[in-house]
Amino acid sequence: MFFFRVKFRFNIICGFILLLLCSGDVFARSESIDKIITVVNDDIITQNELSAEINFIIKQLRQQNRPIPRESVLKEKMLERLIQKRLQLQLAEKAHINIADETLDNAILNIASQNNMSLTQFRDALESDGYAYATYRNIIRDEITINQLRQRQVVNRIKVTEQETQDFLSNKALQGNHNDEYRVAHILIEVPEAASSDQVQQAKQKAQAVLDELVNGEDFSQLAAAASDGQKALEGGDLGWRKLGQLPVLFSNVVTTMEINGVSTLIRSPSGFHIIKLTDKRANVKKQIIVQTKARHILVKVDELTTDYDARQKLEQLKRRIDLGDSFEEVARSNSDDPGSAANGGSLGWVSPGVMVPQFEKQMDKLDIGQMSEPFKTQFGWHIIHVQERRDYDNTEEFNIMSAKRQIRERKIEEETQNWLRRLRDEAYVEIRI
Can you name the residues that pair with 294 across neighbouring β-strands? Predict the structure, then answer.
């Protein structure tokens, strides 16, 4: 949900302002006075907050042409979202996570630029639609806070080993191209932690009843919105396009055997009973061809004894020597402050895109084969580059390894985030008064 990192149409971004000044509630209400409906540890959630959440999600579902669940279902799901958000913000406060105004301002400026607006234009547009800018800032601050909390609590603790990567590639080689993508929809009937046998049986019976309805032709997205406990329930259970490694292992072992529009049997996990539907599949078998550059350079560092002016002057003199016939290799060995490449006459070998810092890569990419740059500066000091060759390189194997690591990591993050949120919820004091 950390939407400040994603490009949205302006009306979608504005939709995330939960304290909407709506002209009327979608569901008729007689309450004119706000009231406490839930206690979350030492905090509260009010009726107005829940109503704002419900109004927002209804607008979003209508924009996406998705079915709108009945009022009781929406109340339950949106209240649970509010509870989870409040618990995370409480934990962030205990962890002393504070978002500096500069960080917040940069995030909002990024949203504005993604919508092709200046900050002033973006603010004016918000206020012209009736949204208080101060409230918007608070919403974004909460999102950044939760993002940083999850980084500490979950993301930074995720490790992917070389053995996991090799096992992944071996398993996917047997199942097919691991870069193939699957669009999966999901229904979860949750089982509480430390559930009794009766609770497990009740959940299983509910899941089986849902599965029976699907077999009899009921719409998957409508049943997901009405019955699923999954995070994407109100989106019809749609998990979007995923590569196999981005799906939970329980799902990836099943989805490769399914036909498009097929529905699985019940899948048991510690979190409950799952039903998945394969809504689409697409192949991705392209080779990854990149342009590599064979280059060499000379570096002069800036320090207490060498100023920017001195470093540039030295490189200009070295470049003149090379232009007049001195060997680049010998000049680099004697003068470069990069010990790794200096020993090899300044050679960097074959360089792939993205390996060097952006300023260096930009200068290198501008040069023709055989051309040498003028002195330029990066964070490491002053450089001159000489481009020797270029080639097309089949990077598919390296790409597949990096893709596998990324998929494993993303899957682990998603699974551990859900487990963490469940633990956070189970350990909290929550009193629901409606």
Answer: 350, 389
Cα separation, 85 vs 424, in Å, equals 11
Tell me how far CA of residue 77 lies from CA of 27, 180, 263, 407, in angstroms.
Answer: 16, 33, 24, 29
Residue 228 CA, distance from chain mean position: 23
Scan for tokens 């979007």, then name that residue: 240
User: pLDDT by residue (tens digit) across 256-276?
Assistant: 889 999 999 999 998 899 999
Q: Residue 213 is which amino acid?
A: E
For the chain, report the end-to-end CA distance as a whole number of angstroms. 27
Q: pLDDT at position 30, please?
A: 40
pTM above the 0.70 mark? no
Q: How far apart are CA 113 and CA 73, in angstroms?
A: 37
Q: Which two tokens stand for residue 349?
A: 């070998």
Mean pLDDT in the chain?
Answer: 87
Residue 90: φ, ψ to 5°: -65, -45
Query: Which among 357, 376, 70, 365 is positioned nearest to 223, based on CA atoms?
Result: 70
Q: How far is CA 62 from CA 68, 122, 131, in A?
A: 8, 24, 20
Q: Using only C-alpha atoms, what is the Rg of the chain?
A: 28
Structure tokens at 81: 């979202």
Q: What is the pLDDT of residues 377-414, one digit of tens each?
A: 999 999 999 999 999 999 888 888 888 899 899 989 98
395, two tokens: 């990077």
Structural domains of the chain, with CATH = 3-153 (1.10.4030.10), 174-286+424-432 (3.10.50.40), 289-394 (3.10.50.40)
Per-residue pLDDT of 356-376, as tens digits, reads 999 999 999 999 999 999 999
Q: CB of 281 within 8 A of CB of 218?
A: no
Alpha-carbon torsion 15, 20, 23, 27, what sign?
Answer: positive
Lookup: tokens for 61: 């579902």
Longest dimension (CA), the chain: 90
Q: Residue for token digits 């206020």?
A: 127
